[in-house]
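Citrate synthase
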Amino acid sequence: MSNTVTLTDNRNGKSYEFPILDGTKGPSVIDISSLYKDTGMFTFDRGYTSTAMCRSAITYIDGEKGELMHRGYDIAWLAKNKMYLDLVYLLFYKHLPSQDEFVSFKKDLKERSYLNEKMLKLFDCFPDKAHPMAVLQACVATMSAYYKRDMNFDDMHDYMELAKRLVAKIPTFIAFHYRHTRGFPTIYPDLDRGFTENFLYMLRAFPHNKVELRPIEAKAFDTVLMLHADHEQNASTTTVRTVGSTHAHPYSCISAGIGALWGHAHGGANEGVIRQLEMIGSVDRVDEFIKRAKDHNDPFRLMGFGHRVYKNFDPRAKVLKGLRDQLINEIGIDSNLIKVATRIEEIALNDEYFISRNLYPNVDFHSGLILKALGIPNEMFAAIFVMGRVPGWLSQWMELKAQDTIKIVRPRQLYVGPTCPPEA
Ligand code: SDX
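Structure:
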C-alpha cells in the first residue's frame, strides 16, 4: 500500500497521486506542492483551516483532546513545575535549563532589559491615550533602526542575541509607556528581582515606595505569560513566518506579529472579554447578550469563547481558571465581574448553540480577569499577551531561518473579477 492519495478530476477522468507525509504526532499531511503543475488548479481553503504551512518541532496541539505541549512537555506540567523563563529557554534551546543555565539565562536577560536612552523619546511622540499596542508595535519596529547589525547576521548565536534582547526589552517598553502616559517617574528595571516580578515592580513602584509583591501575584502573572508563550501556527505566528520568509529584518517580523495579535478575534480578545463583562454589567443582563451572541444577524460575539483548533476545552483555560479563583480569593476583584463571567460560563456550557459549535472558554476568558485582579489596565492586556508570546514567535522564526531553503510565502487565489473592461 503506497503512502499516497489519488485525486480524480471527474470532468475528464484524469487521476493524480500525491504523497502523504507523516509527522511524529497528530494528523498526516498531503503534500500538494505539485498540484498546480500537475493539474493546473489551486486548492481553496479559507482561513487555512485544513492547511499545514510548515514542518515544526516546537508546539503540538490536539484540538479534539484539548492537548498542548511544547517540545514534548505538557503545558499543565510546565505550569505546575516550571517558571516562564524555563519555558522561554526550552523554546529557544530545545531543552529545559539546568540550574546554572537558568541563572545564566536570567542574567543575560537582565543585562538587556534597559533601553537605549534615545528610544525614550518615542514615548513623547504618542498621545497619552494611544493604545499600548500601537506604541509597542512602533517601539519594536524602531529596534531595527537601533540594532542594524542584525540585518545581515547569519548564525544562531546572533539569533539568540536578538531573541534575548527582544524578550528582555519588551517588558521595559510596556512599563515605561504606562508610566509616561500617567506622568509617573520612570522606574528602571530592578536587576535584583525576577523577570516577572520586575515587570510588576516597574508598573507599581515609586522612588519613595519600592512595593513588595505577594507571591500569588508573581506566580499568577508568571503563569499567564507561560500559557501565552507559543501556540503552533496561529494568525500572529503565521504572520511572523510570512514576513520572515521575505528575509525582512527580524524586528520587522515581530512588529508585524504584534499587529496581527492586536485583532479582537485573536490577542485583543482578553481586553474584549473584560470590556464585554463591564458592558453586560450585571448577571440579570447575561441572557440578553447570550441571545445576541447566538443571533446570526447580530455581529455580537462572546469574547473569550470559541477557538479555531480547540473543539473541546482549551487546556490553558483550565489552568488559568484555577489560578483565577485562587488569586481572586487572596486579593479580591470586582466581584460583579466574576458573577457575570460565572453566569456566562454556566449558560454557554449548557446551551445547544455553543455545545453544537464546540464553543468553550479559551485562554482569554480567564486571563483578562487575572490581569484585572493584578491591577493592570484593560488596554494593556494585549501587550501582556505580546510579552508572553514573543519567545514563541522568535523560536518559530528561528526554526524558519534554520531551514536549508526558505520559500517566500506567496499563496494564489480564485479569481472572480471582470474578464474584460466594463462597458464604456
Ligand atoms: C486566540 O489560533 C490560536 O491559537 C489563537 C490563540 C493563540 O494562543 O494564539 O489561541 C489566541 O486568539 C484565542 C481566541 C480569542 N478570540 C476570541 O475569544 C474572540 C471570540 N471567538 C471567535 O471570534 C471565534 O471563535 C474564533 C475567531 C476564535 C474562531 O473562529 P473560527 O474557528 O473561524 O470559527 P467560526 O468563526 O467559523 O465560527 C463557527 C461557528 C459560527 O456559527 P455558524 O456560522 O456555524 O452558525 O461558531 C460561531 C460562529 O458564528 N462562533 C461564535 C463565537 N465563535 C464562533 N458565536 C458566538 N460567540 C463566539 N465567540
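The chain has 17 helices and six strands.
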